[in-house]
Specification:
By secondary structure, the protein is mostly beta strands. The chain has one domain (2-126): Jelly Rolls, CATH 2.60.120. It has one helix and eleven strands. It has one helix at 2-18, and strands spanning 21-24, 27-36, 41-50, 59-60, 63-71, 73-78, 84-86, 91-94, 100-105, 110-119, 126-127. The strands form three sheets. Strands 1-2-3-10-5-8 form a six-stranded antiparallel sheet, covered by helices on one side. Strands 7-6-9 form a three-stranded antiparallel sheet, with no helix packed on it. The chain has a two-stranded antiparallel ribbon with strand order 4-11. It starts with a helix and ends in a 10-residue tail after the last strand. Mean pLDDT is 84; it is low at 10-20. InterPro entries: Cupin_2, RmlC-like_jellyroll, RmlC_Cupin_sf. This is Cupin domain-containing protein. It comes from Roseateles aquae.
Length: 137
């Protein structure tokens, strides 16, 4: 399990360097831009796509996530907080180290425009558990 996590983190780092896409557990992340600014920090600008009828794995970001919903409907599930429903045109922020995940609703996948700001030495995300077992709608 630890080896898989290390491979995923390495793939994410390589994808960010070359500005390409990668898929993690059915979730596609396309890095649009990446820059080191301010000194010691990295800003990643991404498109995240999650298939319908699925849930992302619970995870944290060692920094700030700022997201704008492009397509689809989902619940943002954050540990210790009530679930929040999001639809296209809405936006949200996830604080440093908040354990959270997206639960996709309906028959459409979600597509998100996400900016991650974190210390340059840290990964964009760290998985904190297994995704919910769900059947696609």
């Amino acid at each position: 399990m630890q080896d898989v996590k290390m491979i995923e983190e390495t793939a994410a780092s390589l994808a960010a360097i070359v500005g390409s896409s990668y898929v993690q557990g059915g979730i596609k992340r396309t890095v649009l831009q990446k820059t080191n600014f301010p000194e010691g920090y990295t800003v990643n600008f991404n498109i995240i796509e999650v298939p319908n009828g699925t849930s992302a794995s619970p995870h944290v970001h060692p920094g700030l996530e700022v997201t704008y919903v492009l397509e689809g409907e989902f619940d943002l599930v954050t540990k210790g907080k009530p679930d929040q429903r999001f639809t296209p045109g809405m936006s949200y922020m996830v604080a440093d180290q908040d354990v959270h995940f997206a639960r996709v609703l309906g028959d459409k996948p979600i597509k998100l425009l996400c900016v991650f700001i974190q210390e340059a030495s840290k990964p964009v995300a760290v998985v904190m558990g297994q995704a919910e077992q769900r059947t696609a709608v």
